[in-house]
């Protein structure tokens, strides 16, 4: 089963039992298309030239495993708010 979720940043594809979303930085709202074996990766913002480290954060939410890649430029509060946005979208989809 595949769900489509729209955000102001991009169109996201949320597959059952799978979510792999970047939070913050120039990749905010992007879905990683392949698995990442390490706990972090480095990206370069083309506009600013700034290097951003994304760290893996895994949440088990109901029957879903949600992997978020959090930019080191975000505070914990900002990251939590953005993750809650995606988890609320997932909840709305599962209830419909």
Quick rundown:
The chain is α+β, with helices and mostly antiparallel strands and 96 residues long.
How much strand?
Answer: 35-45%
H/I helix tally:
1
Low-pLDDT residue intervals, each spanning 5 or more residues:
1-17
Radius of gyration using CA atoms only? 13 Å
How many domains, as an integer? 1
Q: How many strands, what sense, and barrel or not for the largest sheet?
A: 4 strands, mixed
What is the mean predicted local confidence, pLDDT? Answer: 75
Structural class, please? Answer: alpha+beta
Describe the fold and architecture.
The chain has 96 residues and is of the alpha+beta class. The relative contact order is 0.22. It has a four-stranded mixed sheet with strand order 3-6-5-4, covered by helices on one side. A two-stranded antiparallel ribbon has the order 1-2. Mean pLDDT is 75; it is low at 1-17. The protein has one domain (2-95). A hairpin with a 6-residue loop joins strand 4 (40-44) and strand 5 (51-61). It has one helix at residues 76-95; strands at residues 2-6, 11-15, 19-23, 40-44, 51-61, 64-71. It has one helix and six strands.
Task: Give a quick set of tags describing it.
disordered N terminus; 21% helix; two-stranded antiparallel sheet; 1 helix; 96 residues; alpha+beta; 6 strands; 4-stranded mixed beta sheet
């Amino acid at each position: 089963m595949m769900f489509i979720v729209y955000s102001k940043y991009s169109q996201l594809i949320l597959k059952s039992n799978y979510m792999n979303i970047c939070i913050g930085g120039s990749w905010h709202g992007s879905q990683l298309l392949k698995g990442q074996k390490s706990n972090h990766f480095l990206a370069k913002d083309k506009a600013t030239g700034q290097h951003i480290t994304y760290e893996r954060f895994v949440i088990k939410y109901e029957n879903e495993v949600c992997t978020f890649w959090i930019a080191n430029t975000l505070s914990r509060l900002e990251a939590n708010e953005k993750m809650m946005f995606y988890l609320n979208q997932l909840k709305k989809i599962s209830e419909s």
